[in-house]
Design a protein that fits this description.
This protein is largely without helices or strands. The protein has helices spanning about 75-80, 85-90; strands at about 1-5, 10, 35. It has one domain (about 1-30, about 55-94). It has 2 helices and 3 strands; from the N terminus they run E-E-E-H-H. The protein has a 3-stranded antiparallel sheet, with no helix packed on it. InterPro entries: Cupin_DUF985, RmlC-like_jellyroll, RmlC_Cupin_sf, YML079W-like. Pfam families: Cupin_5 (PF06172).
Length: about 90
């Protein structure tokens, strides 16, 4: 989760197996005005390439297309230069 107001980055581990990490959670709340992305990570229990995830995003109040915005890679790199490699990994080519 990237927060432009305080230039912070917070990494969350989302999993149903809460023994994976002391900070593991089954879900998180991402407040308005923050950027988020996700990736599947390999764990000790994974021994195949058949990894997948089902995730969703619930918006409150209701979602409206006119309010939707995808961050551009170049914009995020400008705002968070120390996270350039991560941003490149998690954003599409412009």
């Amino acid at each position: 989760v990237l927060d432009e107001q305080d230039s912070s980055y917070t990494k969350h581990i989302l999993t149903s197996d809460l023994t994976v990490d002391i900070n593991a959670r089954p879900q998180i709340l991402v407040s308005h005005g923050k950027w988020f992305a996700a990736e599947i990570i390999k764990t000790k229990m994974d021994d195949t390439m058949d990894n997948y995830t089902l995730c969703g995003c619930t918006c409150m109040p209701g979602f409206d297309d006119k309010d939707f915005e995808c961050a551009k890679r170049s914009y995020l790199i400008e705002k968070f230069p120390s996270l350039k490699d991560l941003i490149i990994l998690l954003t599409p080519v412009e």
